[in-house]
Amino acid sequence: MAATAVFGRRARRPRQRLAWGSPSVYFVALLLIGAMLAPVVYIILGGFRTNAQITTDPAGWPSPWKIENYADVLTGGTFWRQVFNSTLVAVFTTLGVVILGLMTSFIIARYRFRGRGAMYSLFAAGLMFPLTVAITPLYILIKNLGLMNTLPGVILPQIGFGIPMTIIILVPFVRAIPDEIQEAASIDGCGRLGFFWRMVLPLAMPGVITVGILTFIQSWNGYLLPLFILNREETFTLPLGVQAFASQYSVDTAKVLAFTSLSMIPALVFFSLFQRRIVGGLTGAVKG
Amino acid sequence: MSETQHESVRLAPDPSPGLTKVGGDTPVVSPPAGRRRVRKGIGWPARLEIALMTGPTLIVFLSFVILPVAMAAYYGFFSWQGYGPAEDFVGFRNYLLIFEDSTFLAALRHNGVIVVLSLLLQGPAAILLALLLNRQIRGQTLIRVLIFVPYVISEVVVGTGWSLMLHGDGVVNAILGKIGLGWLQSEWLSDPKIAIWTLMGILTWKYIGFAVILFLAGLQGIPEELTEAAAIDGASYWQIQRRITLPLLGPTIRIWAFLSMIGALQLFDLVYIIWGQYIADTAGTSTMATYMVANGRTAGEYGYGNAVAVVLFLISLVAALIYQRFILRRDTEGAITGGRR
User: ipTM more than 0.85?
Assistant: First the structure.
């Protein structure tokens, strides 16, 4: 269960101080890290070069270092508008997924009613409906709703597709809250909704944060849905923006590299802030 | 199947109707005398809460997930250009056309190759790396974070970056020339013999971190006592890994293989970004999803595109069900296709 997996990580026994161990292990680890990071470093460094430098020696170091590419991107309005759009979409998607998912998980985990099992199965089956399959009719649906080229047109479907995984992760969390807590709250005059608000919400917070971070990053990186729904440039999110920029300035490689590396930064910062939870949450979620 | 346990009857009324215990084997509110099975004794306030707290979720989920899938199944039977009502009912003609189109069959074959290569390349590599990183070394946390970086970067950035690096005059060929491996220089993206391997390389780079993290988590769940006991009995390192670690890592490997397979069948973003919608065909990297977009929305044939979506869905579903039935069965007990908890 996701809950035990996530809780379990905390309970790991403290590791005793280690000897350094075999150098060959470090060598392979270094090679691996090098292979993983070299392309990222290349993209960032490339932004500090000129096109002439890149053409004459694609594999060279920046000499001299140029900040014009980055400065151009950062002072133009396009980049910031796309950051703003991406942020709006990601924040509202995350809020929607977390709020709706937690409420529904609470009901499924702690209310007994006819159709509860069916409801859970319905959401769990949603895992089998990937966005890729639904995208063409979704586009038609959004068009009929008049939501083309609007951010809600991206946010609402993203919430829908985020809900199954959220419920799968959160139901065990809510179920794991001991009954004694609920009874105690009830004796103290706390109704069911008060229990939800004062007990379930704080106690399920680790799961909520994990789900929230995963949803945020997924939304931030989302490509297919914005590609279909957002056709006007002022509504572009960052991934669409990167692609549009890359084709618009296809001869200006250095500038494309600068734009690309700037667009990586928010996800990387977000990831480094929450890496422990993301790595833990992913493994917990998948171990299901 | 979950309804059976609701049928039991108990004597005292529940102090908090509608709320149940964790285990699910709690007694159930009894039906008042005279009326049979009155909705398990849930009061109106509880029903209202259920409606208010699941209603919005159900509406969003049904409208934006279930409805589009149903629409795809419906429009797949029409020849329809995306505006006005769909009137030109063509039965199964779209589906016949799909399986007669050699472009689609090629895309399907590419998907198959990607599934197999992902499992054969990424799986063993990720297991070896996880075994390696699971040894007690310093900086383990840092290593984990760093190998996970490509997974966090968006597909668009990955695609844009790699296509700049891999094109004819790009940095990869330049480095090969510099270190004396000039004979290896190639048209990585456009040569049909090479492109699918290039794609596999990029996919491995992007997603292997995820597999390694998963396997590391699995490895840490294996009790040290087992490997210690085997070591005392004189087992070598590799014997221990093969006879003890790998079998115990089985469930994690099977879940990863499932996710990898479904992901490979539905691959879209990276191919579409790097190869565009038309070049992918000639470079031999097109997938069912890129075929769907190119021949559906881009061509303005929405009925046909929906039929492709249905085929893509059915292929994934059948693959998932077969996999679950024969391989995942003992691990998950239907957690993905709708078990109860």
Answer: no
